[in-house]
């Protein structure tokens, strides 16, 4: 079973250039309560290394490339993100890590809720224990 749920966002561009529109409950399957982006990641640095108990997210590499590892405690998949009209869903209780950032990478993340530290699982062994319950 693949954990990678890629969505092709509609490219509404024309001969002048690209244009991708993102709409909650349309192209994104939940109401968007938080938007953040990761940029300027130094070579060899990895990010993420956590799961969320309830938060849903969608990640879009709007510039450059990176690899995203997704792990539900039973299966692991890796996907390369490198297109501004390709989005990957990060479901609750899925451990995720981002690796191999290019120098120009800008990773945009849309989240279903506001930041809540209590929703994070930052220890992989604790994550596995919760998955097994």
From TrEMBL:
Superkingdom assignment: Bacteria
Q: Which InterPro entries match?
A: QdtA_cupin_dom, RmlC-like_jellyroll, RmlC_Cupin_sf
The Sugar 3,4-ketoisomerase QdtA cupin domain is annotated at 4-131
Q: Which Gene3D superfamilies match?
A: Jelly Rolls
* Protein name stated in the entry: FdtA/QdtA family cupin domain-containing protein
